Amino acid sequence: MTEQPYHHGKLREALLERATETIEEAGVDGLSLRQLARDVNVSHGAPAKHFRDKQALIDAVALAGFESMNRRIRDAAQSGEDLRGRFVSVGKAYVDFAVEHPALLTVMYSTKHHPDSSEELRSTGVQGIHVARAMIAEAQQAGVLAAGDPETLAMVCFVSLHGTALLAAGGQLDGNSVEDVVTATTDTLWAGMAAGVPAAQHSQASPTPLCRS
Question: Distance between CA 210 and CA 165 in Å, rounded?
């Protein structure tokens, strides 16, 4: 076998990319270091230079998955000046990632919640919620959302959107489009957090109706 001339960390990147593809194609059970080496055309021992075993590889895949998802969420959170519009964009970014990478998403969360998960993985795995918390706090300070614990509210938003994401990824929305369900979910969440705020302040951050038919 002719080995691929990977240099300066490129082999690790190639292994992670192929491992992620394998998980999407065949699940975690279809992943092995030997097959991975064959797939990227290197010696069977080459992956061990970067990952001591299969679990270390899975941990790295999960971390890379969260980093990719977090970039999407951060970009969505900065996508415009309108607070509610940014909130909707974040929700869509999360659900879109789940629909595109359903098997990877499962691995990301199961690995993050494993008792032996690393501090780096756990902290990276909650950055998306921290973005939502900061947006909620900003909207509260602007007077367009009612007072409340941003940490708790961000978790409620995550639980709701995660449920939507899992159903969407599994094709279980009973004929409803992903976009319509995400819009309805974010509308409902925003309306609940804004309850009690004068209507004039709602309109400043929400130029479109909260509910759509």
Answer: 21
For 149, other C-beta atoms within 10 Å of its C-beta total 12
pTM: 0.84
What whole-number distance in Å separates Cα of residue 114 and Cα of residue 84? 34
pLDDT digits (tens, 9 = 90+) for 46-79: 888 888 899 999 999 999 999 999 999 999 999 8
Q: What distance in Å separates the CA atoms of residue 95 and residue 124, rounded to the nearest whole number?
A: 18
Distance, in Å, from the CA atom of 136 to the CA atom of 145, rounded to the nearest integer, reads 7
CA pair distance 60, 64, nearest whole angstrom: 6
Rounded Cα–Cα distance for residues 73 and 87 (Å): 10
Q: Which of 74, 85, 77 is nearest to 204 (CA)?
A: 85
Tell me how far apart the alpha carbons of residues 117 and 58 are, in angstroms, rounded to a whole number.
11
Token pair for 115: 């008792």
Long-range contacts of 204-208 (CB under 8 A, 24+ apart): 204/144, 205/82, 205/83, 205/84, 205/139, 205/142, 205/144, 206/82, 206/84, 206/144, 207/82
Nearest residue to 44 via CA among 56, 55, 32: 32
